[in-house]
């Protein structure tokens, strides 16, 4: 009896409540998965393009949470909007004076229009490659408009690298934004190298510039020295002229005062005045170490001795006088 009863028994089946609970859990998981696939987050410094079955439907430029239709209906393509920097490879180019130089440049850029960038370029690596070609072409054009002295020189005024960088930037900026949705913020020459055959030419050019600078400094020094000498001569002549004028004025004043004194003395004592003037005449006439033989009757010599008596008629005239130097007959 026990065996037959065990054979006819059937296993327990799940109740209706249990089946509903399991169905609810399954539906909840599906809703959660679908809801999660419909949510996406744009981080700071990034943008995105939302496509629906491959066609762009939305361009996002601001960070934050967003919603979309679940995959595979909508798909999000994130794009980095931060500034990017890349170095162009070393490229050889010619200057205006046919000198070969090898240039390494750098470019600072960023994506401004994610949709246009995605359609025209697709990735940051491809964008850098596009800019590399544009910068290289502009660089060849600008270097061909300048001589080697605009790139390397001992004279800072002749260096034109900043102007060359700006010209390259102006050539690249417009087309890059129009075609690729890229904004180029800066283009610069990072390094300039020279082939072996150009080193001697560069050194010779620098030597010539140094010689020219030395000649210029010498010329400026000579000009300044001549100017100082001329100014000194003019100033010295002015001083001498002023001195001569002052001396003439003093001399004229002294002569005027002396004449007045002479006149006053003559009025006071004519005989003394004549005596004193005779002494002055003797002093002015005689030189040093002079011997004089003279009579005491004529000229100013009568002041040296008392007058003599008149000679007899037969006595030879003493009016003749002879003046000789000591030791002469």
Automatic annotation (TrEMBL):
**UniProt domain Band: residue ranges:** 37-206
For membrane topology, the record states:
Single-pass membrane protein
Q: Please report a single Pfam family linked to this protein.
A: Band_7
Region span, Disordered: 303-329
Keywords annotated in UniProt: Hydrolase, Membrane, Protease, Transmembrane, Transmembrane helix
Q: Where in the cell is it found?
A: Membrane
The GO molecular function terms of this record are: peptidase activity
Any keyword Transmembrane helix?
Answer: yes
- Signal peptide span per the entry? none
Q: Which domain of life is it from?
A: Bacteria
Sorted alphabetically, the Gene Ontology cellular component annotations on this record are: membrane
Q: Which GO terms describe its biological process?
A: proteolysis
**TM region positions:** 20-39
What is the documented function of this protein? Answer: HflC and HflK could regulate a protease.
Give the protein family: Belongs to the band 7/mec-2 family. HflC subfamily.
The name on file for this protein is Protein HflC
- Name of encoding gene: hflC
């Amino acid at each position: 009896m026990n065996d037959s009863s065990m054979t006819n028994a059937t296993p327990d089946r799940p109740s209706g409540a249990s089946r509903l609970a399991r169905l609810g859990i399954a539906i909840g998981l599906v809703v959660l998965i679908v809801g999660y696939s419909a949510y996406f987050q744009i981080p700071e410094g990034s943008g995105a393009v939302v496509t629906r079955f491959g066609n762009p439907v939305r361009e996002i430029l601001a960070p934050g949470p967003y919603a979309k239709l679940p995959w595979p209906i909508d798909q999000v393509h994130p794009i980095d909007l931060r500034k990017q920097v890349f170095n162009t490879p070393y490229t050889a180019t010619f200057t205006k004076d046919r000198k070969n130089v090898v240039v390494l440049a750098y470019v600072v850029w960023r994506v401004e229009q994610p949709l246009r960038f995605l359609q025209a370029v697709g990735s940051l690596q491809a964008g850098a490659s596009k800019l590399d070609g544009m910068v290289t072409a502009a660089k060849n054009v600008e270097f061909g408009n300048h001589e080697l002295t605009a790139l390397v020189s001992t004279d800072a005024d002749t260096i034109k690298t900043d102007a060359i960088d700006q010209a390259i930037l102006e050539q690249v900026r417009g087309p890059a934004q129009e075609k690729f949705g890229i904004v180029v913020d800066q283009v610069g020459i990072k390094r300039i190298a020279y082939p072996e055959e150009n080193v001697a030419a560069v050194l010779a050019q620098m030597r010539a510039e140094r010689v020219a600078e030395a000649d210029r400094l010498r010329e400026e020094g000579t000009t300044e020295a001549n100017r100082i000498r001329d100014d000194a001569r003019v100033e010295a002549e002015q001083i001498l002229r002023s001195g001569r004028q002052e001396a003439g004025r003093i001399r004229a004043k002294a002569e005027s005062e002396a004449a007045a004194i002479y006149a006053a003395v003559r009025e006071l004592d004519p005989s003394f005045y004549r005596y004193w003037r005779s002494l002055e005449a003797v002093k002015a006439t005689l030189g040093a170490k002079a011997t004089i033989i003279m009579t005491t009757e004529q000229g100013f010599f009568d002041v040296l001795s008392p007058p003599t008596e008149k000679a007899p008629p037969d006595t030879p005239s003493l009016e003749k006088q002879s003046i000789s130097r000591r030791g002469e007959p």
